[in-house]
Amino acid sequence: MSFAVELVDVRKSFGKTEIIRGANLQVRPGERVAIIGPNGAGKSTLFNLISGRFGCTSGEVRLHGQRIDGLAPYEINRRGLARSFQVSNLFTRLSVFENIRCAVLWSMGYRYAFWKFLADLDDANDRTEEVLEMIKLDRKRDVLATNLTYAEQRALEIGITIAGGAGVVLLDEPTAGMSRSETRRFVQLIRDVTVGKTLLTVEHDMGVVFGLADRIAVLVYGEVIAFDEPEAVRANPRVQEAYLGAVLEHEAAGAH
Amino acid sequence: MDTAVSALPIATPAAARRNYHFRPYNVGRWIVWGLFALVLAVAPLFWTSSFGQTMLIQTGIAIIACLAYNILLGQGGMLSFGHAVYSGLGSFLAIHSLNFIASGRLGLPVSLVPLVGGLGGLFFATLLGYVTTKKAGTTFAMITLGIGELVWSMSLMIPEFFGGEGGISGNRVVGKPFFGITFGSQVQVYYLVALYCFACTALMFAFTRTPLGRMLNAVRDNPERVEFIGYSTQRVRYIAFMISGFFAGIAGGLAAVNFELVTAEVVGAGRSGAYLLFVFLGGATFFFGPIIGAVLMVVALVLLSELTQAWLLYLGLSFLFMVMYAPGGVASLIMMNLRVAAFGKLRHVWTSYLALAGTAAVMLLGAAAMIEMVYHLQLNIALGSKLRFLGATLDAKSPDSWFGAAFVLFTGVAMFEFTRRAFKRQWDTIQEEIEREIKRREALV
Description:
The complex is a heterodimer.
Chain A: E1 5-14, E2 17-27, E3 32-36, H1 43-50, E4 58-63, E5 66-67, H2 73-78, E6 81-83, H3 96-105, H4 122-134, H5 150-163, E7 168-172, H6 180-193, E8 198-202, H7 206-212, E9 215-220, E10 223-228, H8 230-235, H9 237-253
Parallel strand pairs in A: 3-8, 3-9, 6-7, 7-8
Antiparallel strand pairs in A: 1-2, 1-4, 4-5, 9-10
Chain B: H1 13-17, H2 27-46, H3 50-76, H4 84-102, H5 113-132, H6 137-157, H7 159-162, E1 168-169, H8 186-207, H9 211-221, H10 223-227, H11 233-259, E2 261-262, H12 269-282, H13 289-307, H14 311-325, H15 329-342, H16 346-379, E3 386-389, E4 392-395, H17 399-444
Antiparallel strand pairs in B: 1-2, 3-4
Helix pairs in contact in B: 2-8, 3-8, 3-11, 3-12, 3-13, 4-5, 4-11, 5-11, 8-11, 9-11, 12-13, 13-15, 16-17
């Protein structure tokens, strides 16, 4: 069986500092994986390596068994991997509708076409409307992205990520900066839009992690020190020692 | 705000209504394009003088060039300092083909010569753009500047192609007449330019509604994200650059047919700078902005330069004020006022506009008198110290003239500042009212 995403001894150095020190990870198709770890553990860097934003110093990244390390981000995206960003990364001077439609175009095969009118692309426009309803921004379709509220921008960020229909979705702290009630609604939204997809997410909010993830990967100092089901990770002494102990106890008593 | 009210499953009933696509006939758009065609068609009936028609022809050419430039600047966020390279090289290829037609080596109707210019522009944009569009932002701007200088220096090194100091001249009345059209008269040239102008404007507008056109906007807004939705930003920029080069080349080809003389300055930095400056003045953020810019360009380059020696100074000052106070150019000023008008509030401000215009005119009068006196002192003092300024006689060496001009200037500045502040308050109130009105309408939906 081939894994949806597989990291084989991935390393990344910036100058003399090694941020990722031989990370290994095997994500099965359709699985929801949360990557957690203390600040500076390299969670975002790991996402940047998988999505092609940075190149690996050594090691291999595989998508459905094929190597994708060394490819440009757009080539990786065309193979069915999409990602969101920690800080909303939108097309600020375009409307909500145009933001989503841009994200749909390549997957619908329109490539660099300048001999077709956007208005005539029924399938792309339908898909865009569909995504707008999924992320509940259909009433904001003509608002410029820059004029949205923070929570709406986060929703649009997710919308752009999933619009192209990629099978593997990476979400970098999707609920960062949101209030508790917003977060709860947002987790449900993420569940809805990633049905049947492989999901990797970086999260700080343990409520989100335990509510969303089938398995949890714990990243400490650039290494995956544990990768297991939530209960097993919670019980893992290495994890407790390295990072989680106090937080998990707290969350178990409170939110969960 | 209810982004995610509840955990509704993905809406399914929507799928049913999607099979039917309602496309209303866009009446407004037909009217606008109809008017544009009409203006192009009847313009030479109103400007019948040779000078007037020269200006019309140049405006038509400038519209194509400025719109082509704006594909880069406004739509793609690419600040090019060397776009005259593509219009200029298009001009040279066009004038050479005119000469080939004259010597019988090329059987092409003169009306298609601008297309040769376009293909030339496309060819050089394909060749040089590959290097240029590898980078974006400041690096892109630097490379265009470098390539502009490169081509400019080549123009002096290869006189066989560029004609050296004298340039290359040609004759557009060659080949077989086409239904009696020989392009001997200016009106015939005008209608050729008008046809190309309309077609190119329509094509470039159509481009903004295509997948590539939209992705170009996305690349302008956020190149990083574009890479993560399947597009190569470099490829998007490159293709857009080629398209822009093609239309710039057509403008160059038309200029060659019109002037029948092409000198090396058409590829120079001055021309490139003019494209940038006037597209910016007209407004790069709206499609029609460069059209306004093109009209301003011809008015400034042809009319203003006739009126005063200090025209470059006036031009520089207006550019400066535009960048500082209305970075969206004339087009954005128009659109802002259209919005105010749409909410029925324009009648509250028009008196302020009159006051602003009046005080600005006083200010300008004082400033212009002083500028003209300085220029007179520096350049024409041999003709005596007296000069004519708007019907009055000023003496550049008399303190009276200077004192008078300064008095007018400072009165103007004070009055303008006073009205500006009042207007600012008024404008802000109106904007607040409009925002409130929009919120109210949203709540009703």
